[in-house]
Write a structure and sequence with these properties.
Layout: E1 12-18, H1 21-31, H2 36-39, H3 41-44, H4 56-74, E2 80-90, E3 99-110, E4 115-123, E5 129-139
Amino acid sequence: MSNKVPFEIGDTISFTKTISESDVYLFAGITGDFSQMHMNEEFMKTTPYKTRVVHGVLTFALGCTASTMIQVQARSPIPSMSYGYDRLRFIKPVFFGDTVTAKYTISEIDQENLKSFAKMEVYNQKNELCVVAQHILKFILI
């Protein structure tokens, strides 16, 4: 069994999804976040956005999906788990019906501590950056 992080700097993967109204309502039900920003179309018509916005954390979670996908792609013989996210920012709102793409790119590898660092970016269908974060993945020796 190899005791190395199974990535190379520059390894990348992406995940694309159109966010539906039911996605947002299911997420609200799971989290209990029923903010009028997400649930009340009439209220949102009075704001600069003019329509409901998707939960930032729901959009961010699609980047977590990309993180899982790159781990599967690497077929690592040692297990890994998320060590956390740094510098998470919600740059632009995502709206119901938007198609977003989460791009996950390995930017740094710490072989000594069995960690990888990745740039996680989520873009909308207009190729506008909506969410960004740095993800740390920790590989665990059993």
